[in-house]
Amino acid sequence: MPSSYKIRCVFLLMYTYKRSKYTSNEFLCQLFVGISSLNALSNMTNIMTEKLIVTHNGNFHADDVFSIAALKIIFPTSIVKRSRDLTQISLADIVIDVGGEYDTNTDRFDHHQRGGAGARDNGIPYSSFGLVWKKYGVKICQGNEDVAAAVDADLVSVIDAIDCGHVEGVASGISLSHTISMFNPTWQESGDFDTCFDEAVAFASRVLQRFISVADGGISAKEIVANAIKNAKDPRVIVLDKYTPWKRTVHALSQDALYMVYPSPSGQWRIQTVPVEPGSFDDRKPLPAKWAGLSDQALKDVTGIEDAMFCHNGLFIAGAESFDSTMKMAAIALEA
Question: Which of the residues 133, 204, 285, 330 has the least number of beta carbons within 10 Å of its own beta carbon?
């Protein structure tokens, strides 16, 4: 209940006193009762608007942890209960990863029932996180469908794939799913699962917020990069006035781009190769092999560029002090 409304109610009680036959002490008692009632009503209103979210207890995984982290963004006052008790599940507003039911109308998001809970067009099945994101992702991303789709592609679907055992096309090694699982107490530890779960949710919340921010930044940069491609003097060398995420847009709009040139935060300029596809370590055209690993005078001698600074041993990025010199590096690289 808004505080302004409670203030108006208090003024109304004071006006009533002036027209009543109460003594001052009697009225103060009545005023105290009135204010207490308003506070009680306010608390009841808050309780009624809080969501009760139930997920399973015991060992946890990335799908239930990230589901809670996601829902906490739009339901920050929600209460989370970890239980497999059917009575508690039936009383919940939202049920995650337990209960054997998927129903968006009643906010039941389980995928363990026979037949699962469906799959994406690319074949990746939905886990609980994906089901939650499917309904609430756009709202979590403040109405931006493009950002929600990008987060699904880069984060949500990967967690779903690992949780459902659909590992085809998923990078091996340490993953976020594995990292979340390590928050569980080991058999040698006496840690409380619920406490560890809360710690994992706090970690996941930060990670999810960064994924959303990065996706939003990349999408916001799309127009800037598209204009740079359109206005490039040489379609093989794309110049950005300020560094912005460029890989998705370049791969979508330009088959000709080989190098990106942009200023670094420290004031110098960089030339970076365009990979053959997003995430690949192979480039459309690497920088000249004789530059590999050189810096300062050694690189200046090889390139003939007075303010050349460095070239990475992997031949994917190099730098110079000035824009003109960096463009000279691009010209040399094109002819190599």
Answer: 285
Tell me phi and psi for residue 262, to 5 degrees: -160, 155
Q: Both 159 and 39 in a single domain?
A: no
**What is the token pair recorded at 2?**
């808004």
For residue 81, the number of C-alpha atoms closer than 13 Å in the C-beta half-sphere is: 18
Candidates 271, 285, 267, 219; CA nearest to 246 is 219
Under DSSP, is residue 202 helix (H, G, I), strand (E, B) or coil?
Answer: helix
> For the chain, how many structural domains are there in total?
3
- Indicate whether 106 and 244 sit together in one domain: no
pLDDT digits (tens, 9 = 90+) for 107-139: 999 999 999 999 999 999 999 999 999 999 999
34 with 85, same domain: the answer is no
- In the structure encoding, which two tokens stand for residue 260, read together? 């990106």
Q: Can you give the pTM of this predicted structure?
A: 0.70
Q: Which two tokens stand for residue 199?
A: 């710690």
Q: Residue 36: CB partners within 8 Å, gap ≥ 6? A: none
Q: Mark whether 128 and 24 lie in a shared domain.
A: no
Using CB atoms within 10 Å of the CB of residue 58, give its burial: 0 to 12 exposed, 13 to 18 middle, 19+ buried. Answer: exposed
pLDDT band, very low/low/confident/very high, at 173 (cuts 50, 70, 90): low
